[in-house]
C-alpha cells in the first residue's frame, strides 16, 4: 500500500471523531481543539498528496 | 441609520451587478488571463458549496447540535481527502465520455434512459428545498432588518436577476465541452467575499466575547454558563447521519459536479483541491461558535441562524449589518446560479430530449441553447414557487437537511457504479424509488404540510422526536441499499450493462470487442448521421471528432473508425445526454455483428494500458513492465513482423516491416489487409490463402527502379488465438550473392567444358580443312557440290556448339531477368545433355532422356538446365564407364516429377542430409566447388518446386542415386504480380 494512502487512512478516524475531541481537552484550548486537530489533518493530507504526486 | 428594504434591495442589486461585471470582465478578457485562469480562482469557486446555509444556517445548527455543524465542512473535506478513490474515477468517466451530470453518469452506466430520468427528477425534487432556502435566506435577512418588507416581490426580483445572470454567463453556447470562465471568476469572487465577511464578523464577535464578558477566548470554562447550557450534546447518530450527507456532496450536488467534473476539470486541479480546499472550509467553520455565543449573549435564543445579521444591530455597527447582508446574499446567489445551470442541463438531456427531438432542418445547436435557457427559468420559477409555498415557516437548517437527505439516496447508485460490476439498472431504480419514498413520506411531505399548518417559523425539530431526521436518513439509505443489492443480485444484468460496468467500475478492465462497422470511412459516417442530425450538424460532429483524434477525413482503418464512433458518441453525450447519444449512434452507426464475437480489441487495450501504466503499482506494474519489454522486443526485431486477426485486421506491424514495405505503423495498425497498397496486399493475401508456410518472392523496390527479394514465413498451426503471425525477411542481398554464385558456377562449368569444347570444335575444323584441300582436286561439279555440302555440315556443327556455349554463359547475367516462359521440359533436359556431351570424359556414359515432349513448365530455361547439368554431371562422375543415366518425368495433375537416376556408387547416408548445403562436397579438392547442388536446390525453389535425393536408388543392389525434382506444370503456376 502506498504511504500516501496509508496516511489518509490513518487520519480518517480522527476526522470521523473530530467533534468528540473536545473530550480530550487538556489545557486551556478546549473549543479550538477540533480546529487545531483539523489543521494538523490538513497538513498530513497535504504531505500525502505531495508523496502521491512524486510517485 | 436603520436600513430599509429599498436600500437593502438597492445594495443587493448593486452587489449582483458587481458580480455581473466581474464575470463580464473575465469573459471579455479585460482581466489578465493569468488571473482568470489561476488555480486559486478555480479553488475559490468551489466555495459555492458554502451557501446561505453555511453563512447563516451553520450558526443555527451549532445552536441545535453543538459541534455537529462541523459535519457540513468535514464531510466534504473527507471526500476530498479520498479524491483519488472517489472523485478521480468519476472525473475520468466524465471527461472520456462527456458526461455532464450525475444523471448522465447513471444513464451511461446503467444503459437506461429511465435511470437518467429518475435521477434527474430525484435531484430536482431534492434541490428545490435547497434553492428555496437560498431565496428565503435573502428575504429573511431583509425582513429581519426591515419588518415592513414585502418579501415575495423582493424575492421575485432577486430571482429574475439571478436568472438573467445564469442565462448570460451559463448558457451562451452549446458544445460538448463548454466552459464558463466568467461564471467561475464571479463564483470565486463571491466565495472570497463571503469568507472575508464571515471572518470579520466572527472576529468582531470574538472580540466582543473577550471584551464584554471577560472570556478567555481559548478556555471554554470561562464562557458564561448560559452559553454552554443552550448547546446540547451531539448524538453520534446525528453526527454520522450528517457526515454521510456531506461526504457524498461532491457527487450528488449538481453545482459541485459541474465545477469538479465539467468546468475545465483536470487531475491537478482536483489534487490541489483535495488538500487546499479544506483550508477554506476550516476558515468558514471557525467563526461560527463565536457568532453563536455572541448572539446568545446579545440577542437571546431566538433566530440563531441570523445572529450574524443581528450582531451588527445589537452592537450598533451598521457596517457589520451591511457586511452580513451582502455576505449572505453572495452565498445565496452563487449556488442559485450554478445549480440552476446544472439542473437545466440535466433536465434537457433526460426530461426533454428523450421525448422531444429537435427538427433537424433547423439549427439544432440554437434550439438546444434556447431550450436550456428556458429550463434555467423553469428551475428558478419552481424554486420561487416552493419558497412561496413554504411561507418562510421552515428554518434554513430544516430545508438544508431535507434536501441533503433526498440527495443522499443517490449514494448507493454511485457506489455501485464505481465499485460493483454486479449492480444493474433494476436494482438501482428499485433502491432509489424505495429510498425516495421513505424520504418523501418522512421529511418532504411533512415539510409541505407543516408549512400549510403553521404560520410561524419552526425550529430545527421536524417532528415530535427531534432525532427523527437522523433516523429517517439512516432508514431511507439503509432500505435503498438493501433493495438495490437484492434486486441486482436476483435479476439478470443485460450484456450492454455488463460492458458499461467494465468501463465504469474501477476494478474492471474496459474490454472492447473488435467489431467491424457498417460505415467504412468518415464520409459514410456523415451520410449515416445526416438523417438524425441534419447535414450541417452531422458534418460538424464528424469533423470535430476527427480533429480530436487527429485523423484525416479519408480515414478508413477499422480501428480508427471505432474510435471515431466512440468520440462522436461522447461528444453527442455532452450535447444531448448519454441515453440519446447512445441510442442515436447504435442505430445509425451500427456494428456488423456476425455470430458470437469474442474478439478483443487488443490495440485499444494496449493504448489504454499505455495511458495508465504510471498509475499501476505492485504486481500489476511489474506485469505491465514485462508487457512493454516484450512489445519493444517484437517491435525492434531485425525481421519484419506482422500480426493479423482472422478477419484481416492488422494488429501488429513492427519497425522493420514498416521500413521494408514503406507503410508506417500508424497507417497499418488497425487497417485491414485489403487497404494496403496493391502489390503488398496481393502478396500477403496470396500467401495467406496458400498452404505453404514459406515463400520467397520478388517485389518492386519503391526506392529504386530495381526489385527486391523477400521471404515470408508463418507458423504452421491452423489457428492461433489472435490470428496469424507473418515474418518478412529481406532476401535481396542473399539473392544477389546467389546470383553471383550461379554465374560463377556457370563459368566454372564452362571452364570444365573448355577442354572438351576445344576438342569438339577442333574436329569439325580439321574436317573442314581436309575437305577444303580435297576441293582443290575436285574435277566435276558433282564432286564440288558434295564437298561443299560436307563443309557446310561441319560449319553448322561448330556454330551449334558455339551458340550453346554463348547462350549458357550469358544466361543469368542480366539484371532484368526475363520472366519465366513456358518451355518444354524435355528440351531443357536435352540442352543439358548436349552441353555435357561436349566434354571429353574418362567415363563416357549414356544419357537417356525419357521426358515426354508434352510436359511444359514455366521456367527460365537456361537456369533450369543448369540444374540438370549439375545433376547429370554428378551422376556421370559417380557412374562407371558406359553406364546409363536416365532422366524420367511423370506428369501428375498439377505438377511433374522428374527423376535423375544413375547406377553409381550412391551417397553415404550421413552425407544425404547435407548434400544441398553450400560448399559441401565429397569430391577431391579442386574437383568440385560444393555449390552445384546448393544452386540446384535454389533454382528449383525459385521455380516453386522441390528437390530431394534418395540413395541407394536400387535398394536390392545397394547402388545408384535418384534425384527427384517436383515442378509445377505450366497451366497451374500462380502469378506473382509486381
What does this protein structure show overall?
The complex is a heterodimer of chains A (55) and B (978). With 55 residues, chain A is mainly alpha-helical. Chain A has one domain. Chain A has helices spanning 3-16, 33-54. The two termini of chain A are 12 Å apart. Chain B folds into five domains: 5-490, Sodium/glucose cotransporter (Up-down Bundle); 515-597, no CATH class; 608-635, no CATH class; 637-730, PAS domain (Beta-Lactamase); 736-972, Heat Shock Protein 90 (2-Layer Sandwich). Chain B is 63% helix and 7% strand. Chain B contains 39 helices and twelve strands. Chain B has a five-stranded antiparallel sheet, sandwiched between helices. Chain B has a five-stranded mixed sheet with strand order 7-9-10-12-11. In chain B, helix 12 (236-247) crosses helix 23 (468-490), helix 14 crosses helix 18 and helix 34 (732-776) runs antiparallel to helix 35 (781-810). The longest helix of chain B is centred in the last third of the chain and has 45 residues, at 732-776. The radius of gyration of chain B is 46 Å and the shape is rod-shaped. Chain B starts with a helix and ends in a 10-residue tail after the last strand. Chains A and B meet through helix 1 and helix 2 of A and helix 5, helix 12 and helix 15 of B.
Count of distinct strands of chain B: 12
Q: What percent of the residues of chain A sit in helical stretches (DSSP H or I)? A: 55-70%
Q: Which assembly state applies to the chains in this document?
A: heterodimer
* Gyration radius of chain A, in Å: 13 Å
Uncertain residue segments of chain B: 461-465
Amino acid at each position: 500500500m502506498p504511504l500516501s494512502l496509508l496516511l489518509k487512512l490513518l487520519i480518517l478516524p480522527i476526522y470521523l471523531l473530530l467533534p468528540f475531541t473536545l473530550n480530550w481537552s487538556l489545557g486551556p484550548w478546549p473549543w479550538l481543539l477540533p480546529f487545531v486537530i483539523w489543521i494538523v489533518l490538513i497538513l498530513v493530507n497535504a504531505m500525502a498528496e505531495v508523496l502521491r504526486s512524486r510517485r | 441609520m436603520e436600513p430599509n428594504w429599498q436600500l437593502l434591495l438597492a445594495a443587493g442589486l448593486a452587489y449582483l451587478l458587481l458580480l455581473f461585471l466581474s464575470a463580464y470582465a473575465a469573459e471579455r478578457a479585460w482581466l489578465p488571463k493569468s488571473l482568470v485562469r489561476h488555480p486559486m480562482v478555480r479553488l475559490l469557486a468551489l466555495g459555492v458549496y458554502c451557501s446561505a446555509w453555511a453563512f447563516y444556517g451553520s450558526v443555527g445548527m451549532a445552536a441545535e447540535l453543538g459541534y455537529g455543524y462541523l459535519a457540513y465542512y468535514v464531510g466534504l473535506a473527507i471526500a476530498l481527502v479520498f479524491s483519488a478513490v472517489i472523485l478521480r474515477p468519476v472525473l475520468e468517466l466524465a471527461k472520456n465520455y462527456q458526461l455532464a451530470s450525475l444523471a448522465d453518469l447513471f444513464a451511461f452506466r446503467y444503459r437506461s434512459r429511465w435511470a437518467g430520468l429518475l435521477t434527474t427528477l430525484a435531484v430536482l425534487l431534492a434541490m428545490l428545498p435547497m434553492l428555496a432556502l437560498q431565496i428565503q435566506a435573502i428575504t429573511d435577512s431583509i425582513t429581519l432588518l426591515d419588518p415592513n418588507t414585502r418579501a415575495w416581490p423582493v424575492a421575485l426580483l432577486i430571482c429574475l436577476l439571478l436568472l438573467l445572470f445564469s442565462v448570460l454567463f451559463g448558457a451562451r453556447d452549446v458544445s460538448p465541452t463548454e466552459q464558463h470562465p466568467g461564471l467561475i471568476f464571479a463564483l470565486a469572487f463571491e466565495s472570497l467575499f463571503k469568507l472575508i465577511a464571515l471572518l470579520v464578523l466572527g472576529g468582531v464577535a470574538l472580540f466582543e466575547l473577550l471584551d464584554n464578558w471577560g472570556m478567555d477566548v481559548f478556555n471554554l470554562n470561562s464562557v458564561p454558563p448560559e452559553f454552554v447550557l443552550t448547546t446540547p450534546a451531539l448524538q453520534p447518530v446525528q453526527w454520522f447521519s450528517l457526515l454521510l450527507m456531506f461526504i457524498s456532496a461532491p457527487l450528488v450536488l449538481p453545482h459541485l459536479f459541474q465545477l469538479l467534473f465539467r468546468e475545465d476539470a483536470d487531475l491537478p486541479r482536483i489534487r490541489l483541491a483535495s488538500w487546499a480546499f479544506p483550508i477554506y472550509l476550516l476558515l468558514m467553520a471557525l467563526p461560527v461558535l463565536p457568532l453563536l455565543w455572541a448572539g446568545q449573549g446579545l440577542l437571546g435564543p431566538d433566530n440563531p441562524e441570523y445572529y450574524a445579521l443581528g450582531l451588527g444591530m445589537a452592537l450598533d455597527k451598521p457596517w457589520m449589518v451591511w457586511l452580513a447582508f451582502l455576505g449572505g446574499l453572495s452565498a445565496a446567489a452563487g449556488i442559485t446560479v450554478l445549480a440552476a445551470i446544472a439542473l437545466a442541463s440535466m433536465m434537457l438531456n433526460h426530461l426533454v430530449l428523450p421525448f422531444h427531438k429537435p427538427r433537424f432542418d433547423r439549427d439544432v445547436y440554437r434550439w438546444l441553447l434556447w431550450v436550456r435557457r428556458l429550463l434555467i427559468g423553469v428551475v428558478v420559477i419552481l424554486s420561487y414557487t416552493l419558497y412561496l409555498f413554504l411561507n418562510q415557516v421552515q428554518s434554513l437548517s430544516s430545508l438544508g437537511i431535507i434536501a441533503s437527505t433526498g440527495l443522499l439516496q443517490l449514494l448507493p447508485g454511485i457506489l455501485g457504479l464505481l465499485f460493483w460490476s454486479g449492480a444493474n439498472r433494476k436494482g438501482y431504480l428499485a433502491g432509489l424509488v424505495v429510498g425516495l419514498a421513505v424520504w418523501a413520506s418522512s421529511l418532504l411531505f411533512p415539510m409541505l404540510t407543516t408549512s400549510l399548518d403553521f404560520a410561524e417559523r419552526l425550529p430545527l425539530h421536524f417532528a415530535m422526536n427531534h432525532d427523527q431526521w437522523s433516523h429517517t436518513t439512516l432508514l431511507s439509505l439503509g432500505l435503498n441499499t438493501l433493495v438495490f443489492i437484492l434486486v441486482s443480485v436476483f435479476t439478470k444484468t443485460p450484456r450492454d450493462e455488463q460492458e458499461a460496468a467494465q468501463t465504469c467500475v474501477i476494478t474492471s478492465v474496459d474490454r472492447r470487442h473488435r467489431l467491424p462497422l457498417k460505415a467504412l470511412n468518415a464520409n459514410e459516417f456523415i451520410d449515416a448521421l445526416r438523417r438524425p442530425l441534419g447535414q450541417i450538424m452531422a458534418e460538424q460532429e464528424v469533423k470535430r471528432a476527427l480533429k480530436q483524434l487527429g485523423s484525416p477525413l479519408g480515414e478508413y482503418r477499422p480501428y480508427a473508425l471505432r474510435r471515431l464512433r466512440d468520440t462522436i458518441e461522447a461528444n453527442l453525450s455532452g450535447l444531448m445526454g448519454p441515453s440519446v447519444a447512445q441510442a442515436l449512434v447504435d442505430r445509425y452507426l451500427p456494428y456488423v455483428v456476425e455470430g458470437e464475437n469474442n474478439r478483443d480489441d487488443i490495440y485499444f487495450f494496449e493504448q489504454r494500458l499505455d495511458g495508465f501504466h504510471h498509475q499501476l503499482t505492485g504486481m500489476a506494474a511489474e506485469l505491465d513492465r514485462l508487457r512493454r519489454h516484450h512489445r519493444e522486443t517484437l517491435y525492434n526485431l531485425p525481421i519484419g513482423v506482422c500480426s493479423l486477426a482472422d478477419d484481416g485486421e492488422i494488429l501488429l506491424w513492427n519497425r522493420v516491416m514498416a521500413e521494408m514495405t514503406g507503410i508506417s505503423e500508424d497507417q497499418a495498425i488497425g487497417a485491414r489487409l485489403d487497404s494496403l497498397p496493391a502489390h503488398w496486399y496481393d502478396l500477403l493475401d496470396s500467401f495467406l490463402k496458400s498452404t505453404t508456410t514459406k515463400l520467397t518472392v520478388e517485389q518492386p523496390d519503391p526506392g529504386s527502379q530495381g526489385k527486391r527479394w523477400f521471404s515470408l514465413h508463418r507458423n504452421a498451426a491452423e489457428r492461433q488465438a489472435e490470428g496469424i503471425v507473418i515474418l518478412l525477411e529481406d532476401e535481396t542481398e542473399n539473392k544477389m550473392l546467389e546470383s553471383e554464385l550461379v554465374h560463377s558456377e556457370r563459368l566454372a562449368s564452362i571452364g570444365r567444358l573448355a577442354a572438351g569444347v576445344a576438342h569438339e570444335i577442333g574436329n569439325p575444323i580439321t574436317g573442314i580443312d581436309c575437305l577444303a584441300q580435297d576441293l582443290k582436286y575436285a574435277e566435276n561439279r558433282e564432286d564440288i557440290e558434295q564437298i561443299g555440302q560436307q563443309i557446310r555440315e561441319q560449319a553448322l556443327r561448330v556454330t551449334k556448339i558455339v551458340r550453346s556455349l554463348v547462350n549458357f554463359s550469358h544466361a543469368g547475367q542480366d539484371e532484368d531477368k526475363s520472366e519465366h516462359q513456358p518451355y518444354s521440359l524435355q528440351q531443357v533436359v536435352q540442352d543439358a545433355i548436349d552441353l555435357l556431351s561436349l566434354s571429353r570424359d574418362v567415363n563416357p556414359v549414356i544419357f537417356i532422356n525419357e521426358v515426354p515432349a508434352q510436359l511444359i513448365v514455366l521456367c527460365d530455361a537456361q537456369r533450369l538446365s543448369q540444374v540438370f547439368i549439375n545433376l547429370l554431371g554428378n551422376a556421370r562422375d559417380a557412374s562407371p564407364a558406359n553406364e546409363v543415366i536416365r532422366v524420367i518425368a511423370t506428369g501428375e495433375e498439377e505438377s511433374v516429377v522428374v527423376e535423375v537416376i544413375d547406377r553409381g556408387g550412391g551417397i553415404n547416408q550421413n552425407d544425404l542430409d547435407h548434400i544441398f548445403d553450400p560448399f559441401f562436397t565429397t569430391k577431391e579438392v579442386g574437383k568440385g566447388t560444393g555449390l552445384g547442388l546448393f544452386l540446384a536446390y535454389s533454382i528449383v525453389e525459385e521455380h516453386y518446386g522441390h528437390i530431394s535425393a534418395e540413395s541407394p536408388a536400387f535398394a536390392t543392389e545397394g547402388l545408384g542415386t535418384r534425384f527427384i525434382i517436383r515442378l509445377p506444370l505450366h497451366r497451374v503456376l500462380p502469378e506473382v504480380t509486381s
